[in-house]
Amino acid sequence: MPYQSISSLPVLLVDDEPQLLHSASLVLRASGITHVIMLDDSRAVLPLLAQQAVGVVILDLTMPYITGQELLNQIAAEHPEIAVIMMTATNDLQVAVQCMQAGACDYLLKPVDKAGLLTAVRRAFDNRVLQAELLSLKDRLLTNKPHEPQAFNQIVTQSPAMYAIFRYIEAVASSPQPVLITGETGTGKELIAHAIHQQSKRPGELVAVNVAGLDDQMFSDTLFGHAKGAFTGADRVREGLVSNAGEGTLFLDEIGDLTLASQVKLLRLLQDGTYYPLGSDRPRQNRARIVVATHCDVKHSADNGTFRKDLYFRLRTHHIQLPALRERVEDLPFLVQYFVAKAADVLHKTTPTIPPALFQWLKNYPFPGNIRELEGMVFDAVTRCQGTVLPLQSFKEASVDAGLTQEEEYLTDTQLNFPERLPTLKESEDALIAEALRRADGNQGVAAGLLGISRQALNKRLLRRE
């Protein structure tokens, strides 16, 4: 059963005291758990479970006809997937231990306070979702490709690392828990967020917002909205993005740049599922799934105190780390072909032929801007193309510009490790030429570019070696 379906299953309250049933159901419904079934006769429990799926059962321990402990044993035997919470007015440690050993997930003492009841029910649902997730993840990891590849049509790849991410997304997409997407700039974090939303099959839309640069008030107003008269200029009610997302997905990009004050509000939204519009003292219920992304090292930020640790651990319930383009060079031919065709279509040009030397050249380029940078390079090359073959000039210019920067960093930040006996200049030159040819797959033009010399100069050195 999908996780989203598990979270929407009803809670079954079983107690022979109608007043307790009524008060407990009010507490659950007020917290957003709207589907609650109440039974005051323990004999009706098993027939109901045989006909209807239930997420969590809350049992009174002492009831006429069939006791809560007897029901617990029968539910554990016939419906082991259902989470059972026991309630009793008797503080008996031995009975509590027996119930937990029989399969109860929690044990509450009457009178049960509101917070304790809600915490127990949410924890029970979370445990059911986690069990389903582990089973699904095990099934997904036994295959090499995603079960539903159409959800990933917008992502061009043949990389095993990306396929592993797709299978993980399939396993966790329908979970109600947040997802943290990390990766360098330009690696496709928003595409992954869209894939998660599409795979989750949630009924609402995906609402995306970049939270970088938002101060605390702007963050609150953007996400939570405001009441009329909340501040100067608030002459009408504004629904925030959380409300607009409905039961869909709220995607927060660049989460690493949030202020600490905004982090507290986001943490409350994730923990309690509630939020307050500016100027309102009445909480609202969040129904959207939260997906966040950042290019920052959030763990490092949490360790140095610029990002709340409790928020970090709450966000990384499901964590997707996207590889940089230089770590998936096998995708370069597919990405280049896709971007060339896309650029030719936009520019109303005939799709040019891609020279094989281009792939050898790109394979040795570090792509600090990742896929977004590659798309820009290809678009520029197609724009400048006057014939039928894609020119290499724009790629070489980008490589030279990046190479100058890398050379400066290399000279200042890198300490060369030499052997005890220094190699001669000839030995060093031979080693550099051999490595450049290896990286260029034997293409002398590309190897010469890597060495910063002309092809003719490389040919002369190769002839001298012979």
UniProtKB/TrEMBL annotation:
CDD domains: AAA
PROSITE patterns reported for this sequence: RESPONSE_REGULATORY, SIGMA54_INTERACT_1, SIGMA54_INTERACT_4
4-aspartylphosphate modification, residue list: D60
Sigma-54 factor interaction domain sequence ranges: 155-383
Keywords: ATP-binding, Nucleotide-binding, Phosphoprotein, Transcription, Transcription regulation
A GO molecular-function descriptor: sequence-specific DNA binding
Coiled-coil segments: none
One of the protein's GO biological processes: regulation of DNA-templated transcription
SMART domains: AAA, REC
Domain Response regulatory stretches: 10-125
Any Pfam family the entry gives: AAA_lid_14
InterPro entries for the chain: AAA+_ATPase, AAA_lid_NorR, CheY-like_superfamily, Homeodomain-like_sf, HTH_Fis, P-loop_NTPase, Sig_transdc_resp-reg_receiver, Sigma_54_int
Protein name per UniProt: Chemotaxis protein CheY
